[in-house]
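Tutorial, part two.
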Amino acid sequence: MDMIFLKLLNMGLAAGWLILAILPLRILLKKAPKRVCCVLWGIAALRLVCPLSLRAPFSLIPSAEILNAHTVQYARRPTVNTGILLINRTLNPIISRTLSPAPGASVNPLHVWIFAAGILWAVGAVLLLCYGMFRYLRLRIKVREAVPFEEFSPSKNLWLCDAVSSPFILGLLKPRIFLPSGIGADELVYVTAHEQAHLQRKDHWWKWLGYLLLTVYWFHPLVWAAYVLFCRDLELACDEKVVRDFDGAEKKAYAHALVSCGMQRKTVLSCPLAFGEIDVKERVKTILNYKKPGPGVTAAATVLCFLLALCFLTDPPVSEFTGSRNGNDSEFVMVFRKFNATDSQNLTLEAGDVLNAAIILDDGRMAVKIRYGDAVIYDNQELLVSEIFDLEIAQSGIYTVEVTGEHARGRVSFTRSRLS
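Running the prediction step on this input gives:
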């Protein structure tokens, strides 16, 4: 359970950057077709669902794996890799100080916290799923005495019910439109057109899929924001589909029907699609001011969606080494912006020499091991801060310096000098 939660945590944090990009993009695309915003949320859903992503140099995701399983289970000084240097420098000293295991401890404290968080996540997901099913079943019971409105809908997917006060769609495989029995004749045509538009767009499927994602990522505040805005954009896109060919008088009549039916409804977390789920004022304003977007606006919006998918559905490449390296039999010097590998250099040293070591670490972590034959004369596998030291050489021979970086940034220097 803990590793499942850790995987979802990393996927959710990566998708968070995409959601943050969509929020201002929705405003920028205000004059574009409203269905474009639904496409944007579809891209975000794809990022949340897909456990694998292609790596590309143009990816705008700072880090695809902020916390890995090895760090959680075994790291003596755990750190995170957010991909942003300032955040790493702020968080890592705190994390390493508070979550490092005590000497002789049998379990890593970070592993305990992730295990507990995994259990809490599972409980929350089950509760939220049960809540959705409870709402669904309660509505099923509420409309069990509904009668088909055959006079208006020969297809028999339109039903009248005394127990409901606002129109909504219920059902997935065989969806039905339920209307209050007292609905006026003036509103009936427009309300039915709105709900039929939802069915044509398969919105009753998309919203439930969105809710399932919410139950999985309930711990992520940006996913909650995305779900709320997604539901609003579904309604606006449906309104746009209905009024696309309306004249001014028809738009006003449709807006009047919206006010008549929508003002009675309260927003509920997992309610089925209905006529009045979002702010009525916003929808009326959008309807009355609607103008069909030109082909240029639609084309620009399509390009933006494509670029967004290209930059946020990909992960940054794993660069093994970015920097410079200089090594020979008397020195080993590396300066790197990114070091995520293992490198080694043989140094020929004589008795009486001093090996001057300088490890300057700006970000990430490193491990350093110095061997003389099979004997290890220096070993530090958890370097999180800079370290400078000198080693006096007692025996002549070949010494091997091995350095390993994990998302490291900085420089290392191993040079030979003589005792004065």
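DSSP finds eleven helices and eleven strands in the chain. In part three we will examine how such features are distributed along the chain.
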